[in-house]
Write a structure and sequence with these properties.
Helix content: 10-25%
Number of helices: 17
């Protein structure tokens, strides 16, 4: 039974939950076993034993399965030809000792694709007949396209197979391509350097934690923070060979400094020196920068107004000796400078130390400074090299490079890529015509591929555009992808900004404020929290509002970020973050008392703070709003929502609802009906389900939700649609409110809300970069049957540096 404990018994009907989110980067501790390994592949051999204990072969890897290995059989019993996701420990001999194996359900679509090694070929003209590829039978017909451009087809050749997956696991191939190598699994681990090659550039074989690491001229070795020697603890990233050794892509010292000080702030003063060596001012703190300080500009350029993360050693006077500075956001906060990537051939290089100066790449001027990251090194890039350049586009179409990377020979196809915000769109079918994106004209034709990615395309949307840059600075777009969902309507371009008040209008508060370098427009309708308290200059605040074209914010609310260790400020932050409103008196008093009843008992206070935080997820209002939205995404699109997708949706469905006030049930019900009725009309939903029959529609939703209804219940939904007694919105709602579906998604939504609510980001955003942190907490919560106290999940998030940094801790 799911654990609720004290919280479920004491939930006050005045609490609702959902999360207003904004990007805020720092770190939360994530448990990762150094040799933890995960990969997905096709089973080609199984032992004939009870519970399949013994050695399996999956995607060519030997997998040791023991009696303690957990085998999840969502896709049925293990069998040769089925797909398995393997988690476990990578041994030095290249085998894997499995801790968990998930048998994937069989896909049922026309676009099945897999890679493997040819084990058997028919002796027929054109190889027509049945092949065996990594244990899977592939049916090849005379119409199957066989591409042997990479290498000749033979037993042992690596191939990519595209086709239709049958119910028996075999594949009707439409296309087969030979490939030179099997894509090896990527692996990352942390360990101590035990031996190094006796070469000046460290090229050769290293031994790290007993594992051989192959280092070549293409391996990026980070030495900005000091040389790597025997005994250095390093992070190794690379690809696993069959013998268990690693072809290293990148090696860097592990960030394990015990006295390291980290903070996020806005640059207010810079020295006028080469490489910005000297004293900076960041959020009022002096930062000492030397020639050894590592400065990263991949997310923006160093300038007054830029938001940066500073790492270093804190002096007694409060200043910081910086070892590393990373630009998080360019000057002007949500700036309009297009960030771009191009690939091309180096035609000209400056004759200067470190290649600093102006380069010519495919006829375009690239400005390279001492802060530009050159991979793998400056000496490795020469005239004729094919490179990828990342940076920011100047008005004259030259590029301020943040990084230049040598590209493999096989990728030498020039391209131009721009990231920006949609300023204007043409009023035409398919948006054909000229767009304005971050101030630049984009030519869109009928051949331009536009992928909204389940996100509405509207003014304010962030997009990634690939195409050809013309001499007049405009772009012929080949491919456009919407990379952020900015929904239309009242909450278009809604953002949260955390920063420090620098100036206020006089007499105020209505007028223009300056907060961490951003202009904030405050009107008579702007909400201040706590009520009737105007934050003073120097206060840490959260600003919620709409982003304007000039990069300023029209403030909907300004919330004082108090002392998170104080019970009243702690509870008030939850109301504002989760409910976007001021606390009601009775609810606020209840939760403050819930913590303060412990007096000076720190252990008791810790437990009550955890229970109070968890209550905002477990509350009635969140279960009926935010959690409902999570299930709508899963049942409709078979995926979790992104953080940005929650903002407008949750505010729409919960607007005007305060549990406990008169008429709240009727208001909530009306909101839910209107929201789901609108949901099924969205283009993303219609494009998936619009052409389906009613039976196909019901089955698709059930499949996404992982539900199996009785034959009579399933038929009742179909009949209701056929005879008009049910709408598609009503059928969708019945499925997302199914008790079995609610129970299945409960823990997953609980973990997701920890990232959204406390860390203000998606689980795979930096610093994680993947879903390992999310999966770690989900596995732990499942292990403790939903008991968040025993799993220590909520406690870990509210005590994390990433959460506490919002409050200046």
């Amino acid at each position: 039974m799911r654990f609720m404990g004290f919280v479920r018994q004491s939930i006050c009907a005045l609490i609702a939950l959902f999360i207003i989110v904004a990007p805020f980067r720092s770190a939360i501790v994530r448990a990762d076993d150094d040799d933890e390994f995960e990969f997905t592949g096709t089973i080609s051999a199984l032992p004939n034993t009870t519970n399949f204990v013994g050695d399996w072969i999956v995607a060519g890897h030997t997998v040791h399965v023991t009696s303690t290995t957990e085998i999840e059989r969502d896709g049925g019993d293990p069998a040769v030809g089925k797909t398995a996701e393997v988690e476990g420990t990578l041994n030095n001999d290249g085998t894997i000792t499995a801790s968990e194996i998930e048998i994937r359900p069989a896909a049922n679509n026309q676009n099945f694709e897999f890679q493997g090694r040819v084990e058997q070929l028919p002796s027929t003209s054109g190889f027509v007949g049945d092949w065996t590829v990594s244990g899977r039978v592939v049916h090849v017909a005379s119409t199957t396209i066989i591409d042997q451009s990479q290498q000749p087809l033979a037993v042992g050749t690596i191939v990519k197979v595209v086709g239709t997956l049958r119910t028996d696991g075999t594949v009707d191939a439409t296309r087969i391509e030979t490939e030179k190598t099997l894509r090896p699994p990527f692996f990352e681990f942390t360990g101590t350097v035990q031996s190094l090659p006796s070469t000046s550039n460290l090229l050769g074989d290293w031994i790290v934690n007993g594992r051989t690491v192959h280092v070549t001229s293409l391996t990026k070795i980070e030495t900005e923070d000091g040389p790597i020697t025997t005994g250095t603890v390093v992070v190794v990233k690379g690809f696993v060979r069959p013998d268990g050794s690693i072809d290293a892509v990148k090696i860097e010292p592990a960030e394990t400094a015990p006295n390291e000080f980290v903070f996020l702030g806005t640059i207010t003063n810079l020295p006028n020196t080469s490489g910005f060596v000297g004293d900076w001012t960041v959020d009022g703190r002096t930062v000492h920068v030397t020639s050894t300080t590592r400065i990263q500009q991949e997310e923006g350029l160093v300038a007054i107004g830029a938001v940066v993360e500073v790492r270093g050693t804190l002096r007694g006077d409060g200043s910081v000796d910086a070892t590393r500075i990373e630009v998080e956001r360019s000057a002007g906060s949500f700036q309009n400078t297009p960030r771009i990537e191009i690939e091309g051939t180096v035609q000209q290089l400056p004759n200067t130390p470190g290649q600093v100066g102006d380069w010519i790449v495919n006829g375009r001027t690239i400005h390279v400074t001492s802060l530009t990251v050159l991979r793998p090194s400056a000496t490795a890039i020469t005239v004729g090299s094919f490179v990828e350049v990342e940076g920011f586009l100047r008005p004259n179409n030259t590029i301020d490079a943040t990084s230049v990377e040598l590209e493999p020979v096989q990728n030498q196809t020039p391209r131009f890529m721009l990231f920006g915000r949609v300023d204007t769109l043409p009023s035409t079918s398919g948006f054909i015509g000229d767009w304005i994106v971050s101030g630049r004209t984009i030519h869109v034709s009928s051949s331009t591929q536009i992928n909204p990615n389940h996100r509405p395309l509207a003014i304010g949307s962030l997009v990634r555009i690939t195409g050809n840059l013309l001499s007049d600075g405009t772009l012929d777009a080949q491919h456009i992808v919407v990379i952020r969902n900015d929904d239309v309507g009242r909450f278009l371009n809604f953002f949260d900004l955390f920063g420090t008040v620098q100036t206020e209008p006089s007499p105020g508060p209505v007028g223009d404020w300056k907060i961490s370098g951003v202009t904030i427009h405050v009107t008579s309708t702007t909400r201040f929290a706590p009520p009737n308290i105007i934050p003073a200059v120097g206060s840490r605040v959260k600003v919620s509002g709409q982003l304007l074209n000039d990069g300023s914010l029209a403030a909907d609310a300004i919330v004082l970020q108090g002392d998170v260790d104080d019970s009243r400020d702690f509870v008030r932050a939850h109301y504002d973050d989760f409910l976007s409103r001021d606390p009601d008196d009775s609810g606020f008093a209840f939760w403050v008392k819930n913590i303060d009843q412990c007096g000076s008992d720190d252990k008791c206070r810790q437990v009550m703070r955890v229970n109070t935080s968890a209550a905002f997820f477990l509350s009635i209002e969140f279960q009926q709003t935010g959690f409902l939205i999570e299930r709508l995404f899963v049942a409709s699109f078979n995926r979790l929502p992104r953080m940005s997708e929650f903002i407008a949706d949750e505010r729409t469905i919960s607007e005007g609802v305060i549990v406990g006030q008169p008429g709240w049930q009727d208001k909530l019900e009306a909101n839910k009906q209107a929201f789901i009725n609108d949901w099924v009309t969205h283009p993303a939903f219609v494009s998936l389900f619009g052409t389906m029959t009613n039976a196909q529609f019901v089955d698709a939703l059930l499949r996404n939700a992982g539900l199996t209804l009785s034959a009579s219940d399933r038929q009742a939904l179909i009949d209701g649609l056929n005879n008009g007694t049910l709408t598609r919105a009503q059928v969708l709602r019945q499925i997302v409110e199914n008790t079995a579906f609610v129970d299945r998604e409960f823990n997953r939504a609980f973990v997701l809300m920890q990232f959204f609510g406390f860390l203000r980001r998606d689980p795979d955003d930096a610093p994680d970069g993947d879903m390992k942190g999310f999966n770690f907490w989900l596995n732990k919560l499942n292990q403790f049957h939903g008991n968040f106290n025993d799993a220590e999940m909520v406690r870990a998030f509210i005590e994390s540096l990433e959460f506490r940094r919002r409050f200046g801790k």
